[in-house]
Fold this sequence. Notes:
mainly alpha; MetI-like fold; membrane; UgpAE/MalFG_permease; MetI-like; Sugar ABC transporter permease; transport
Amino acid sequence: MSIGSSPPSVRPPGGGRRAERLAPYVLIAPAVLIILVLRLYPLLLGVNYSFTGDGERDGQAVGLDNYTELLKDPVFRTALENVGLLVLLLPVAVAIPGLLATFIHLRVPGHRFHRGVYFFPAVLSPVIVGAIFNLLLAFDGPLNSGLGYLGIGPVDWLGDPDVAMFTVVGVHVWATFGMALVVFLAGFSTLDPSLLDAARVDGASLPRVIRHVIVPGLSRTIQFVVVTTMIGMLTSMFGLLYVMTSGGPEGSTYLPEYYIWIQQGQMNRPALASAASTVLFVIMLVVGLAQIALLRRTGRES
C-alpha cells in the first residue's frame, strides 16, 4: 500500500449487521417487558374480572351485570358528571401554567422569584395541602372572615354541594400546576426566539403573539400538558377528596377514582370496582384522543 493512500474500508460481517439491527429492540425490551407485565397484563385481568360477580356469585360469569349496576347507581352517575365538569375546567387548568410560563419566559419583573414560588406547591403532599385548605376554607375560617370585612356573606366552600367540587378542583390546580409550568418552560426553550422578535417588531399585542406564535410553536407541549393534566385530574385527586370532603356533601364530590376505592376498600366489591376502573380507563382513552385530535386541528388552523 502506497504512502498517503487511505486504508481499504472494512465491511462488517453479516453477523455484525444483524447485531446492529437487533440492538434497538434489545435496548427497549426491558421497558416493553415492564409495561406488559406490570401494566397491560393487570389491565386485562381487571377487565376480565369486571365480568364476574361479587359476594355469593364470586368468580361466576355475570356478563354486563356490573356495568348495568354502575349505570343505575346515582353516586356513580354523579362521578361521571364530575368527570364532565373536569373536562370543561381543563382549559383553565392548562391556561394558568401556560400564561405564567409565558410571563416568566418574557422575563417580567421578579420572574426568578415567581418561578420558585409557583413550583413550591408541587412538592407538597396532597394530604398536607388538603389539611391546610380545610383550615383556610372552613365556614368560620380566614377566607370567610376576609369576605366578611368586604361585606360578602360567608360561603360554605366544602359543605355546599354546588360549590364543593369547584373548590376541590381549584385546590388541585393550585397544588399541581407547578409541574405543567416546568414543562411549558422547557417547551419555550425550543421556541425560535426570532419569531418573538419579529412579532415585537411588527407591533403585535400579547394576545396575538400568544395565539399566532406561542400556541403553534408549543403545540406538542400543549398536547402533552393537556393529556397529563387530564389524567392527573382523573387519577390523582384521591388524597384531596379523602381529606377535604370524603366524597361529600351528599356525594357531590365523587370521582370514579374515589368510587373505585369505596367499592373495593369499604364495600368489598372488587368485581364492581374493576368494572368502574374499566369505565375510567375508557373515559381517559377517549378524552385523551379527542383532545389530541382537537389540538392538532387547532394547530393546523393557526
